[in-house]
Amino acid sequence: MEVQFGTPGMIESWMELVALVSWNFPGLETREALEEHRETVLNFISRRQALCVRRGDQVVGVLLFSRKRNMICCLAVHPNFRRQGIAAALLQTALGCLDSSRPVIVTTFRSEDEKGAAPRALYRRFGFQEGRLFEELDYPVQELVMPPREE
After folding, report:
1. Residue ranges with strand state E in the chain
2. Element counts in the chain: helices (H) and strands (E)
3. 114 half-sphere exposure, CB direction, 13 A CA radius
4. Which H helix or E strand runs over 43?
5. What gap in Å lies between CA 121 and CA 52, rounded to an integer?
6. At CA 54, angle to CA 50 and CA 55, rounded to 5?
7. How far is Cα 69 from Cα 99, in angstroms, rounded to an integer?
8. Is residue 70 a contact partner of residue 104, using CB atoms and an 8 Å limit?
9. Could you list the pLDDT tens digit for every one of the 151 residues in the chain?
């Protein structure tokens, strides 16, 4: 499986995936929110901070990350392509683009939220540790932190 940087030409397929899984992402419930997210994705693509995995012309996994904030911003895999290592490959590639001498942050579902089991297990496998609890877009979430690596 090849992880690659997203390009503007992939935006339609990218957004088809986002629309399919939007129910699982607080803040993406409306058409307007999806349109805003489209602009966000294009912005990340222009900064080479958008990764994806494709099967043919179909985008089946996506990840947005911020070098400035040293953060994983969004990770999603098509339901028909889960449990194939796509999320792990995307995360591994993104971590290679971030500064390992600084903490890497990701916000995900809290432990008691059924939506959180798979993402939390993935992040734990990579060494993320539980951080602060807070609300984002009126939804209870938890920050997970990968401590800096000593060089």
Report:
1. 3-5, 50-55, 58-66, 71-77, 104-109, 129-136, 139-146
2. 4, 7
3. 0
4. helix 31-46
5. 21
6. 175
7. 10
8. yes
9. 799 999 999 999 999 999 999 988 888 888 999 999 999 999 999 999 999 999 999 999 999 999 999 999 999 999 999 999 999 999 999 999 999 999 999 999 999 998 888 999 999 999 999 999 999 888 999 999 999 987 6
- CATH class of the 3-146 domain in this structure: alpha beta
What CA dihedral angle connects 45, 31, 56 and 63, to 10 degrees? 40
| Tokens read off for 124 | 């734990």
Question: Is there a contact between 14 and 62 (Cβ–Cβ < 8 Å)?
Answer: yes
Q: How far apart are CA 128 and CA 18, in angstroms?
A: 25
pTM beyond 0.85: the answer is yes
d(CA 97, CA 57): 25
Query: What is the Cα–Cα distance from 68 to 65, expressed in whole angstroms?
Result: 9
For the chain, the distance separating the N- and C-terminal CA atoms, rounded to the nearest angstrom, is 29
